[in-house]
Amino acid sequence: MHTIRKANASDLDQLSVLFNAYRVFYKKEPDLKGANDFLKARMHDNDSEIFVCEEEKTLTGFVQLYPLFSSTRMKKLWLLNDLFVDSTNRRKGISVALLEKAKELCRETGACGMYLETAKSNVIGNQLYPRTGFVLNSDHNFYDWDTQ
After folding, report:
1. pLDDT value for 140
2. Distance of alpha carbon 10 from its chain centroid, rounded?
3. 15 with 22: CB under 8 angstroms?
4. Is pTM beyond 0.85 here?
5. Domains of the chain
6. Cβ count within 10 A of residue 61
7. For the chain (length 148 residues), average pLDDT per consecutive 10?
8. What is the reported pLDDT for 121?
9. For the chain, what is the HEC assignment?
10. Bridge partners, 51 (sequence order)
11. Cα Rg of the chain (Å, integer)
């Protein structure tokens, strides 16, 4: 049985391991210390909302959301930036449970919704998101700009 709850400082070590694995999944170099420092700063500065899945005192997945605002709707909007479940715990409904917790956050904060982005090559995510109520927005172009 798993529990979905808000992450806290005592989760930092286990959460950092998951976050590091998430980054490696996206072709980034492993950096456990950097992952720990990054998450510690997010928690300390209240920059994001992080929810974890815990099963028998072990963290098996997480979702991290950042607050945004929609000027046209004049409401809060959440960016679902990170969703990850450890490979040994997939196909147990953990991703769906984490997404439901994210939706709950949206409702509780009076947000108008949430955005997420995933790679076209993320076959699992591109099947999961529509199945959980997300709609692919094909009406807009997505651009990014990097300082590097």
Report:
1. 84
2. 19
3. no
4. yes
5. 3-131 (3.40.630.30)
6. 24
7. 95 98 94 98 96 96 97 96 94 96 97 92 89 90 84
8. 86
9. CCEEEECCHHHHHHHHHHHHHHHHHCCCCCCHHHHHHHHHHHHHHCCCEEEEEEECCEEEEEEEEEEEEECCCCEEEEEEEEEEECHHHCCCCHHHHHHHHHHHHHHHCCCCCEEECCCCCCHHHHHHHHHCCCCCCCCCCCCCCCCC
10. 6, 63
11. 15
> Would you state the pLDDT for residue 48?
97
- Partnered with residue 77 across adjacent β-strands are 68
pLDDT score, position 58: 96
What does the buried/exposed string (b/e) look like for 97-124 if buried means 16 or more CB atoms within 10 Å of the residue's CB? bbbbbbbebbeeeebeebbbeeeeeeee
